[in-house]
Write a structure and sequence with these properties.
The protein is built from 11 helices and no strands. The chain starts with a helix and ends in a 7-residue tail after the last helix. The longest helix is centred in the C-terminal third of the chain and has 54 residues, at 252-305. The protein has 2 domains: 1-192, ABC transporter transmembrane region fold, CATH 1.20.1560.10; 194-312, Up-down Bundle (ABC transporter transmembrane region fold), CATH 1.20.1560.10. It is 79% helix and 0% strand. The chain is mainly α. Helix 3 (39-72) packs antiparallel against helix 5 (92-139), helix 5 packs antiparallel against helix 7 and helix 7 (150-192) packs antiparallel against helix 8.
């Protein structure tokens, strides 16, 4: 670590990372060793999130089975579900209502377990990472600080490290939710009708190039936005610490122009990233619209042909 101060540069300097090939999420894997220190919270978070997604889908499946029962007068679905809904005085209507309630009840419990596990894990990783970064800074040679402003270092230790808590608590749960929901829904559709599954999930192949374009494009702008945050912090730190000198030399306007320049750079980078993000989201909605439009058309045709039931 000491060699970084007097050597050829900082390995983690943003300018040293190839902007044309960097993809969002690649560097986040460096957080994994910190998460391995708390296997209990990781496992409880994964298990809680996976179970929450299972019970999140259960009411929709129950509603579909209930529709089939009310329209056709026959019970459909796994035998264990049929036995459950008929165990309440022999009236499946009550059983389906209880099944839907249990789905939401269990969803609330496991979602709470998942949220608590991931949030507390994020706080622990945040603390450990900040301490490691602080110890590394203390071990640096004095020349390391000559090349960097205090505000930039403070931005890394405070703002950037704080962002990791959101990544761990929010992004991790989102990834697990998407994976579990996708494969569970795909399995359910395949069991009901493989034709319907192909129709619904076929358009997803168009999302892959869209996601790749977004990740490679927005990564550069988000990185520059974070750099601008450090520059603003550095300018403000210098201004506040030297306010007596600024006022003594009547340099208020010059300092205000510095802040305006750095803040304007941050604004431009943030607007550029927002522009790419707002191009990406409509593309996803278009693909989703195509998929659901095909689902309704193909589903109606399959139901008319008798391949699937109304509830399916």
């Amino acid at each position: 670590m000491r060699g970084m101060g007097s050597g050829g540069g900082d390995a983690m300097e943003p300018s040293d990372i190839n902007e044309r090939t960097q993809i969002v999420g690649r560097q986040i894997w460096r957080v994994v060793p910190y998460a391995k220190r708390y296997p209990g919270r990781v496992l409880s978070g994964i298990f809680g999130n996976a179970m929450a997604r299972f019970f999140d889908l259960m009411p929709f499946v129950a509603i579909g089975l209930a529709v089939d029962y009310f329209t056709g007068g026959e019970l459909f679905g796994p035998q264990i579900v049929q036995d459950f809904v008929t165990s309440f005085g022999g009236d499946p209507a009550i059983g389906y209502g209880v099944l839907i309630f249990l789905g939401f009840f269990c969803l609330a419990i496991f979602q709470g377990i998942s949220e608590y596990s991931w949030q507390t894990l994020g706080y622990k990783i945040q603390h450990d990472l900040r301490m490691d970064a602080t110890k590394s800074l203390i071990a640096m040679e004095a020349s390391y600080y000559d090349m960097r402003q205090t505000g930039q270092i403070m931005a890394v230790l405070s703002s950037d490290v704080n962002q990791l808590e959101d990544v761990v608590s929010d992004s991790s749960t989102s990834i697990i939710r998407i994976i579990v929901t996708f494969f569970t829904a795909f399995l359910i559709l395949v069991l009901m009708s493989w034709k319907l599954a192909i129709v619904l999930f076929g358009p997803i192949i168009f999302i892959v190039p869209i996601v790749y374009w977004f990740s490679t494009s927005v990564q550069r702008k988000y990185r520059k936005q974070r750099e601008s945050t450090g520059d603003i912090t550095a300018v403000l730190e210098n201004l506040i610490s030297g306010i007596a000198v600024v006022q003594a030399y009547n340099a208020e306007e010059w300092e205000a122009n510095r802040v305006d320049r750095e803040s304007g750079a941050y604004r431009d980078q943030a607007m550029g990233a927002s522009q790419d993000r707002n191009r990406f989201i409509p593309m996803i909605y278009v693909v989703a619209g195509i998929a659901f439009g095909l689902l309704v058309t193909a589903g109606g045709w399959l139901a008319k042909e008798g391949d699937i039931t109304t509830g399916q």
